[in-house]
Amino acid sequence: MFNCNGLIVSQLIDADPDLIFNLHKNFSFIENVRFSNGKILFWEKHYFRIIASLRRYRCKIPISFTMEKLEGELLKLFNFIDSKTENALFRFQFIKNLKQTSFIISLSDTNPIKLGFENYQVDLYKDILMYSHNLSNMSKTNSDLRLIASMYATENGLDDVILINDQKKITETLNGSIFLLESNQIQTPSLYSGCQDFVLRQVFLEWIKKNVNEYNVLEKEINPFELQKSEEIFIISLEQGLQCLTKYKKSIYSPDKGLILLEKFRSCLN
């Protein structure tokens, strides 16, 4: 089922032909939104990220695109399907054209936000570099780079790869935002590095600064060699969950502190 500009259809062929034409011809971007335990998580932050993206992509923003209206369109689809699931992902796609900005929403069941600490191996992806400017903070910008990097990961038997920018600093992984833990510091690439400004990244940084006194959080440029100096490394993603790294090159990580920290964070998401 799809919500196409407020019209619920079972397949896209039943949607407005102009909408489908613009979907294939014109620019679009996607915001994934998680539904958990009867509510949409972090909807206010998602909404402001959507509006900021519409402005930066020079899309016409209809006056009807209020926070309440767009939330209602998500719930309209959920209620129409009459889903009994407690965990789902909305795929909210916005399509730009000269006359107006349109949207298509789809919904899929998913698992609860998991905490992973099993074998998880990564490597640097250095074939294509990400630009270190704020346009890279937007998910659409480097979509082709991530597609090619995911092929590299598959071909080399990796669970994930770490992307680097044109200044040879780390930005993020294919699956989410990366954090390095060493002593009493947690480091993560700053937005100036070109990493995506994920909603869960924002939420985690706010949570840890407010609730965890034993760690100082630094958003900064991070050289790849710091990966091997770190005690622990973990990745957070709204779609993939919370994942502790176990191996990078010759470094083996024991996720003792990270598991405790991430379990506390996950408990506050429910």
Structure, explained:
The protein is α+β, with helices and mostly antiparallel strands. The chain has two domains: 2-109, D-amino Acid Aminotransferase, Chain A, domain 1; 115-269, D-amino Acid Aminotransferase, Chain A, domain 2. 30% of the residues lie in helices and 33% in strands. The protein has seven helices and 17 strands. The chain has helices spanning 17-25, 43-56, 67-81, 143-155, 199-211, 226-229, 256-269, and strands at 2-4, 7-9, 28-36, 39-40, 87-96, 101-109, 115-116, 121-130, 160-165, 170-173, 177-182, 185-189, 216-220, 232-237, 241-244, 247-248, 251-252. The strands form three sheets. Strands 2-1-6-5-3-4 form a six-stranded antiparallel beta sheet. A six-stranded mixed beta sheet has the order 7-15-14-11-12-13. A five-stranded mixed beta sheet has the order 10-9-8-16-17, with helices on one face. Strand 1 (2-4) and strand 2 form a beta hairpin. The longest helix is centred in the first third of the chain and has 15 residues, at 67-81. The model has no long low-confidence stretch (mean pLDDT 92).
Q: Which helices and strands occur, and which strands form pairs?
A:
Layout: E1 2-4, E2 7-9, H1 17-25, E3 28-36, E4 39-40, H2 43-56, H3 67-81, E5 87-96, E6 101-109, E7 115-116, E8 121-130, H4 143-155, E9 160-165, E10 170-173, E11 177-182, E12 185-189, H5 199-211, E13 216-220, H6 226-229, E14 232-237, E15 241-244, E16 247-248, E17 251-252, H7 256-269
Parallel strand pairs: 7-15, 8-9, 8-16, 12-13
Antiparallel strand pairs: 1-2, 1-6, 3-4, 3-5, 5-6, 9-10, 11-12, 11-14, 14-15, 16-17
